[in-house]
Amino acid sequence: MYTAWESLNSPLDLPQVTPGLSIPESSATVDVRIINTTTYQRTKTENLFGKAVIGHENLSFPSYSFLISNAQMGVNILFDLGMRRDWWKSCPPGLTEYISDYDPRASLQVCVETDVADILDTDLAEFGITSNSIAAVIWSHHHFDHRGDMSRFPGHTKLIVGPGLLKAHGHELNRSDVEGREVFELAEQDFPLEIGGFPAHDAFGDGSFYLLSCPGHTVGHFAALARVTSSPKGTYVFLGADCAHHCGEFRPSPYEPLPQQVSFRSSNYSFDNIISTPQSPRSPTTFVTRKPVLCAGDFVAQCVHPRQSPTEPFYQTPQEPVVHNYVDAHDSVQKLQAFDAHEEVLVCISHDSTLMNVLPFYPNTINQWYRRRYKQRLKWEFLNDFDVGGKKFGCGRRFL
Fold first, then answer.
1. Could you give all domains of the chain from N- to C-terminal order, each with its CATH number?
2. Start and end of every Metallo-beta-lactamase domain (predicted)?
């Protein structure tokens, strides 16, 4: 009998050999916790990708912050902060007229319920890591839905940014973000290693957490690689930030074509409900889901995929000026695909709503993702966004 969480049978096309990642050996690990920052956004999919896959006219997505804890060193850092509650204070002035927290006619709708610092401090009695415990905040890049509110963190919390960010975008930053704290802008020479084709910086010096120079989306854009287990085998979490905005931007790939049968869990939870209700309750950490769906891979390729390909992503890399540099952005996505194809690496991009359908969230860690087979369950979850298995096509059988 077919299992509900696995992609079944052989791929529709012969996969290419996956490039090696050349991750340095180490026994050091970190704990990774995903924080739902309560930042939700909605825009027309065509604004980002030019043309939407059928059924995916609106792109609704959360933003995540990642709490990285090196227990051996006693250091806690945050990778990204989502959007600050008073988002208009960090939004570039030229964009405010296109953004609204209530008007569906706006180019971008946003809803933010709280700040990351409040999430940490509210859970003090249960968990113990507060905003005062954060040694550093790393911005993957300068966009206002990642910077959060640095003023909510004490002066001893350092801010770390990527190469060239301050020169290119320093004028867009809030004074309160940088005033009274150490700001470290890494330079190109601070990335002496290479992992998966990305220049890499060993953040803790013990091989547990690497910052990866991942250009294209913006100047100074970071990704990161966290080693979460070292025995019996090394497993990792790749924090892709905005290297991609949707899983259909890097799946399927030449290394992992669509399988002959695709299994995913259909969801009836929508961020649209949160965005359209200004005083919404705090969102749950998991989706409400229906039974798993099994679809024929060739149906998905032929009837849903815009180029009818089992080896190309559903969406192509956005063009300039949506990205800062198209060539670099496309190259970064191709490198991300190699990470995604390795069984020991779990890819988490900043706006992937499917993570909420499967993974445990803060204060729990995701370190045991490999043992619990979360990756298999996540692989094709993004197909929920497309018109697959719905009234239009009626493509699949359902299994308990």
1. 21-251+323-372 (3.60.15.10)
2. 117-222
